[in-house]
Amino acid sequence: MSATRTRPRRATGIEGPVAILGLGLIGGSLARELAARGLEVWGFDADESATRDAYRAGVIARVFDGGLRALEEARTVVLAVPVDAAASLLERAAPHLNAAALVTDVGSTKRSIQSRAAALGLSPVFVGSHPMAGDHRAGWHASRRGLFDGARVDLCRSPETTPDAWKRARALWRAIGAVPAERDATSHDAEMAFASHLPQLLSLALAGTLASRGIPRKRLGGGGRDMTRMAASSVTMWAAILEDNAVPVLDALETCLAQLGALRGAVARRDRSAIEEAFRVGNGWSQDD
Amino acid sequence: MSATRTRPRRATGIEGPVAILGLGLIGGSLARELAARGLEVWGFDADESATRDAYRAGVIARVFDGGLRALEEARTVVLAVPVDAAASLLERAAPHLNAAALVTDVGSTKRSIQSRAAALGLSPVFVGSHPMAGDHRAGWHASRRGLFDGARVDLCRSPETTPDAWKRARALWRAIGAVPAERDATSHDAEMAFASHLPQLLSLALAGTLASRGIPRKRLGGGGRDMTRMAASSVTMWAAILEDNAVPVLDALETCLAQLGALRGAVARRDRSAIEEAFRVGNGWSQDD
């Protein structure tokens, strides 16, 4: 059985079959890109209708059930489920990964999955991936071609990761137009707490604040709409991230609460110079883009 | 002297000459729309190069100096400067507004300018306007046609405002494609503290937090970039808004700090049900758009 080939150009450096576990926004979009490049993609999703639709669309050439035995023939394996599910899925998949030359994931935190891979003896073939792509939508029906165009993908390896697996991980993301960059898993997670998880919490707190006063989203201007877009994000993905990365997230929250407290003080005191200083910092940071 | 007419269709219900004091993003864009509809627009800006460029572009047909005597011939007068400057400008303009059938402004707060108009005896011809348009850019060079297309404009009148002035204010905004809606000035300001001023402060606090950790904007994904766009906003405009609307803004800040504090507690306790509840509220609010 082979995948529908919408573009006959073959990707180099990726070996099929590629098994993608989870066909949501990220996994589904990855499946579309790889299938379009002539790779044989196998997949499954806990949502049966997603699996069926992906198969009917010709994106996945083989559906395998939760037993995961079919993984024994896969050369490239991608976990594309929420970070907590990825850990247990990796455990269930581990006995069937003998043929895999690369095992990777797409989660927003990288430290715990790397530890889990090490505990399962998978370090030689495991590379953690975090594509900076996606939005507040979720599921197979949100998946699409082009999602990874020019997107940065942080890649994390352990000292035990083989050069071969590393090369394959870079080739995988490059082939679909993304830009891989090596990161240490711990510093990745610490930075993401500030750059991604904190913005998510601020957006949620703002939405909660507006909801508590009965102010609907349609009353907002462009700025307020930008600020609340992430409040529509999927709790399934985010609850797992916040739990997994709790310590760095709390650091980010405390830092931001201190900044907000200072702004509150400046507004309360009508302290124009303190307000001006906050804008000076914000404007300067914005320009350094 | 007459304005350059890029579109010969005349706007109905607006009487020229229209004097626009302040040719920044909002005043400049308004000038462009009115001139394009055949109205004679007069203008000035504290930034001489903005005034000169607007004149050279054929958008304003007459430049008047800060003496404001030329206002004596204007039938429609628009204050398009930051809210603190609008108050003092209105005071300086008041002796010259005998011919004006409509005096309005475009500020983000409406209570204090309405009080000032009342104190100056201008209530019969004064209608406060707040167009929900604009972005983090500022100045004449950011001004453009189309800025007000479909934009809501909150209009506030006092009991002394004449039906004629009210009709003119509605006609002015409708003519350029905006959607005017009547609001009480006090409730407008209270709502804006939550819907606009709080998002601005959150964006600034987030930028300050990221700056404090040396995380540049380019490390952010789409969500984080959305959340920090307002950090590039002009302090000139915002310091005045925050000062003028300090009491409602502090209410909004306190409410949001309580929400963030609750989220911090949920993350610290690994309290998944509290996290889920916050997302349930945020998701529900997002859908009600």
Unreliable spans of chain A: 1-9
Assigned CATH class of the largest domain in chain A: Alpha Beta
| Number of helices, where a helix is a run of at least 4 consecutive DSSP H or I residues of chain A | 10
DSSP strand count of chain A: 8
- Would you tell me which CATH topology of the largest domain in chain A applies? Rossmann fold
Note the quaternary state here: homodimer
Note the run of SSEs of chain A as H and E: EHEHEEHEHEEHEHHHHH
How does this model look, in words?
- The structure is a homodimer of 289-residue chains.
- By secondary structure, chain A is of the alpha/beta class.
- Chain A folds into 2 domains: 18-183, Rossmann fold; 188-287, Orthogonal Bundle (6-phosphogluconate dehydrogenase C-terminal fold), CATH 1.10.3660.
- Chain A is built from 10 helices and 8 strands.
- Chain A has an 8-stranded mixed β-sheet with strand order 3-2-1-4-5-6-7-8, sandwiched between helices.
- In chain A, strand 1 (18-21), helix 1 and strand 2 (41-44) form a beta-alpha-beta unit.
- The radius of gyration of chain A is 21 Å and the shape is elongated.
- Chains A and B meet through helix 6, helix 7, helix 8, helix 9 and helix 10 of A and helix 6, helix 7, helix 8, helix 9 and helix 10 of B.
Quick structural gist:
Two copies of one chain form a homodimer. Chain A is an alpha/beta fold.
Which key features would you list for this structure?
elongated, homodimer, 289 residues, 2 domains, disordered N terminus, 8 strands, Rossmann fold, alpha/beta, 6-phosphogluconate dehydrogenase C-terminal fold, eight-stranded mixed beta sheet, 10 helices
